[in-house]
Amino acid sequence: MKITRLTPDANGLVDWPILNSRKRAVMTIGVFDGMHKGHQAVVRRVVELAKQSDSLAVVMILDPRPALAHTYADEHDGMDLPNDFVDTQALSSVEQRARIMEKLGVDRVLVLHYTMAFAAKSFRFFLGQMVGKLGMRTLVLGQDAALGAGRKGDIKAIQELCEATRVFELDVVDDLGPGYTWVPSHFEPRMPEGIGEPQDPREVMNKTELRAWSKQNNCRKVRVWSSTNVRYLLSQGCVKAAAEILGHDQAVEGAVVHGEQRGREIGFPTANLAQVVEGYVPVDGVYAGWLVDLGPIDDGGNGANGANNADAGNRAKNTEKSNVSNSVDVANLASPSDEMRMAPGSPWRWPAAISIGTKPTYSDETGINERVIEPYCVTDDWLELYDHEVRVEFTQFLRGQVKFDSTAELKAALKDYADQTLAITGAK
């Protein structure tokens, strides 16, 4: 599989690559943040149709997220997002999404840098480019997809264009899953008060209570299978419910850096992650999960999967961001080595008790209140992970952050978290 990064010029025009002079393309277009089950249904259909017609299976990822790009433009006189902007609300990086797409059988991934000039193009112009430049003969979309300026290219409008031009076909996938739910229009992370995985608060409400709650929180209707719903669940500590939608545990990836080394002193050495990580970080608390060593970061700033330590939001350092398409083998971004490292039973994969928060037991003493991610690998092996890129997967919420009265109490709690982690992950 190849990834090609493309950037529109100042007029919103793209120098499209030649995908294959002999094969046509079955394509889909979207953000695919998190690659949840709805996204997977669409991509699987692309691969299925491509195999049936001996075509290329092609996915176009819009990056950054259009909703974020438009919000920024509205607040900054129509300007595009800066290249170094870190999207802390994105569930996953482009490369994390591409790994899953490769597993599903995708041949090519086009990562299109979403700009305001490009956003101004009509869906008719855009689809004409897909047909004429990329050889698209089938477009696969979910049921509520919309393309082009003002999102005017909805399913009905695209189907009418298909019938009028007869140069491509539209295939609509039933990706609704369980249907719809309500999510507050604006929500903040809320750390659960009890011990153990919290229940989705909406599941324990009857219809009257849910209606009142929706009005009180100015909720909007979204799909159950949606990135917005996953983000909300993670912000409430409901990582198991989020994983049900994603089809996999939520994960973040980042560089291991030197911390206060207090964990080493008390016998529970942690792998402290850099402040900038790829992926949405769940609410503060203690979690059971996994840590995967993705390899050392070399002198150029790239780990085994191409991660850039200085800017974890830009993993593809060796991909030029220009108007000239630049194809790179996916081995630079989602290599077989990554696949081996992340696989169950891998020697680079360990159960981990993961702490997210501000270290309340010692923050008064140190005066440090930065939010940190600290996985403790539950293993007898001595691990040296400094300057390595790691992946941290969240399997279950254990409890919220607690300020202990002494180091002895903290050590006892850490031992309990480690035991729970081994039981939950099945590593015990």
Describe this structure in a few short sentences.
Helix content is about 30%, strand content about 25%. With about 425 residues, the chain is of the alpha/beta class. The protein has two domains: about 1-175, Rossmann fold; about 180-225 and about 225-425, Riboflavin kinase-like (Elongation Factor Tu (Ef-tu), domain 3, Beta Barrel), CATH 2.40.30.
Structure write-up:
This protein is α/β, with parallel strands linked by helices and 428 residues long. It has 2 domains: 2-173, Rossmann fold (3-Layer(aba) Sandwich); 180-223 and 226-425, Elongation Factor Tu (Ef-tu), domain 3 (Beta Barrel). 30% of the residues lie in helices and 23% in strands. The protein has helices at 37-52, 66-75, 94-104, 116-119, 123-134, 155-165, 207-216, 227-235, 239-246, 262-265, 336-342, 360-366, 407-425, and strands spanning 2-6, 25-30, 56-63, 108-113, 136-142, 146-147, 153-154, 169-173, 180-184, 219-223, 250-255, 285-296, 326-329, 349-357, 372-377, 388-399. It has a 7-stranded mixed sheet with strand order 8-5-2-3-4-1-13, with helices on both faces. Strand 6 and strand 7 form a beta hairpin. Helix 8 packs antiparallel against helix 9. The longest helix has 19 residues, at 407-425. The radius of gyration is 23 Å and the shape is globular. Mean pLDDT is 88; it is low at 299-336.
Please tag this protein with its features:
single chain; 428 residues; alpha/beta; Rossmann fold; Elongation Factor Tu (Ef-tu), domain 3; 2 domains; seven-stranded mixed beta sheet; five-stranded antiparallel beta sheet; 16 strands; 30% helix; 23% strand; globular
